[in-house]
Structure formats: structure tokens, C-alpha cells
Amino acid sequence: MKKVDVVIIGAGPAGSVCGSLLKQAGVDCVIVDHADFPRDKVCGGGLTVKAWRLLDSLLPGLSYDFRPINRIRLQFENDAVCEFNAEYPIRMTLRKDFDNSLLQYYKQAGGELIKGSFARFKQQDDGHVLVRLKSGEEFLCKYLVAADGGNSRIRRQIAGPVDMKRHALFLEYYVDGNHHDDVYVHFSHQYKPGVFYRFSSNGRDMYGFASADTNEDYPRHLGKFRDTLTKFQVPEGNVRGAYIPLKTVCSPTDNVILIGDAGGFPNKLTGEGLYDAFKTAYNASRAIIENKSFKDTNSEVFRKMQNQQKVYEFFFSRFGFWLVRRLLHHPGAIKWLFDTKMKREKFTNK
């Protein structure tokens, strides 16, 4: 049995950022992940200004490849396209390379990565946590951090079976090469609640479809996505999919912390997950370093998740959808709302 202060399950953005912050503070920690990096993941890979500003402040000197995109195009059904240039660019990355850059930053700070798959954890009488991997390897730690994504085993041990009605289904398809230079989002009653989108990524165009109306009816949504690709004259190819949890879960104990997708922290309306992966990773590190409760250090994010659920329900209501359609006839107003939201966001609690 190995003894360590913190065990982090998952080497994605949330886990790697949390590990780097802990190493910077001199905390003994290890990250456990079953994947071989670099590895790809279903995700648009876009970092909004609030996300890359936060990341720059947390991991100074981090280097990663990205393609800056300022042009935003929004369309409702066959209405005129609402188009504007955002004040700050969205940094489009390839998750395969971006996640590996974060992991390498953690390693350069002296962090250890252990290849393995999480099995179970058990609270000990002395306040420690016993973590067991599928290989039989065990760790005794003060804190266990779940950063193992939407299918988190730690989350399932805490909260039970996943509620599929509180998940979003994301389908993605890639075309190599840079054929566009924008972020395009299409709204339609045909896939409400949900959207079709195209991101001009770094070295490829990424087409996606998001829907919260999953009901485990994957074939129907896949068919709808393929029909939409045909409508936009996109050649057929392999489609990848993933379910992302929308229900936020808080651990009942202070020494087990759920962050990123594992805690259900993606934006309930847009699906953006990287900003809150960084934010919750930072708040988890604060809880550990300062010996505080994650409920306290992450209270702002918990409140935001509750508010986002209300906004989501209004957005896809009959009146909300009608209002969005009317607003898209006024690009200046949409640009102001978009830029204002990006500048208003708080980046750290420092």
C-alpha cells in the first residue's frame, strides 16, 4: 500500500490542472489514468476568453497550440444569419494535443502519472481514504479527487446510477483541413432542445450535435445528426458520441472531491466544460491546501450551476425560443451580450 496526500483519478484538464496546482504548493499527489496520452476525446476544444484567461493565470508559462477564431455566426431555421466578430477570440484546440500539454506541465512540476483504472474507495476510521485500483494496487490518502469524466466511477459510488434524463448527448464528426474560419451554431425546432454546430478547429472542421432529450434513444439522434450533415452538404463519415452529465453532484464528505465533468459542472446551456474544469480544479486545490470544505471554496460555482439550469429551462421554453429567434435579427445586441458575459466572468478567487 502506497501512502500519498492526494490521489487524483483522471489526467484530463481538471485532473492535470488540479495536480499542477497542488505540486506548485508542495502537496504530495499522484494522478491515475487508464489511457495512453496523447489521447483524443469528444469535445469541441474551444477555450472562450474566460477559460484561457483563467488557465493563463493558473498555469503561467503553459504552451499549447490553438487557432484563434473571432467570427461568430448564428442562425435560426432558414432565417438570415446573425454574424459578428467577438471582442476576444475563442482559442480552438485539438483535445488530443491540448490535454497532453496540460499533463506534461504537471509532469514538469514533478508530478507522477500512474497508469491504472479506479475500482473503489473506502473511508477509513482515521479520516483517510483507501483507494483501490482494478489491478489490486492500493493507496492510502488524505484526499481523493474525482476527475474521471462524465462516466466517473467515483461519482457512481457516491450518487448511484446515472440519471440519463439529466444528461446531454454530444455527437461529433470531423473533416480534416481548415475550410472555414468561424463558429457556426444552428437552432431549429427539429432538434429542440439542442443545437447543431460547426467549429473551425485547429487543423480540421468539427461538426457537432447536442441534445438534452436523450432518453437513451441514440439511434434516433444519430439519424437526425446525419440528416443535418447532409442538409449542410457535409460528406458522410464516422460519428463519435458521448454523454455528459448535467446534474451537479457534491460529495457528502470533505475528503472526496468531484471536479469537472465528474461533478456535473459543464455549462448547462452551452455544454462548455473546460472553463469549469479549470475553475473547480482550482477550488479543489484551495480546499486541500487551505484545509477547507470544497462546498465553501466552490460555492460560487455551485450557485452558478443552479442558475444555469433555470436559464436552460427558459431558453428552450416556447417563449424563450421565440425570443432567441427575435434577438438573432439584431447582431449588435447579440454581440454586446456575448462580449459583456465574457468580460463579466470572475477568473479566480485570489
Core attributes:
350 residues, alpha/beta, FAD/NAD(P)-binding domain, 7-stranded mixed sheet, 15 strands, 34% helix, 28% strand, FAD binding
Could you explain how this protein is built, in words?
The protein has an eight-stranded mixed sheet with strand order 3-5-4-11-12-13-10-14. Strands 1, 2, 6, 7, 8, 9 and 15 form a seven-stranded mixed sheet that branches. The model has no long low-confidence stretch (mean pLDDT 89). It is globular and about 65 Å long. The chain is an alpha/beta fold and 350 residues long. The protein is 34% helix and 28% strand. Helix 1 runs parallel beside helix 3, helix 1 runs parallel beside helix 6 (274-289) and helix 2 runs parallel beside helix 6 (274-289). The longest helix has 17 residues, at 299-315. The chain has helices spanning 13-24, 49-58, 95-108, 153-159, 218-231, 274-289, 294-297, 299-315, 318-327, 331-344; strands at residues 2-9, 29-33, 46-47, 67-76, 82-92, 112-115, 118-123, 129-133, 138-146, 167-176, 183-187, 194-200, 204-211, 240-245, 256-258. The protein has a domain at 2-41 and 94-163 and 246-321: FAD/NAD(P)-binding domain (3-Layer(bba) Sandwich).
The largest sheet, given as strand count, sense and whether it forms a barrel, is: 8 strands, mixed
- Cα-atom Rg, whole angstroms? 20 Å
Q: How many individual β-strands?
A: 15
- Please report the distance between the alpha carbons of the first and last residues: 36 Å
Helix content: 25-40%
Q: Let me know the average pLDDT.
A: 89
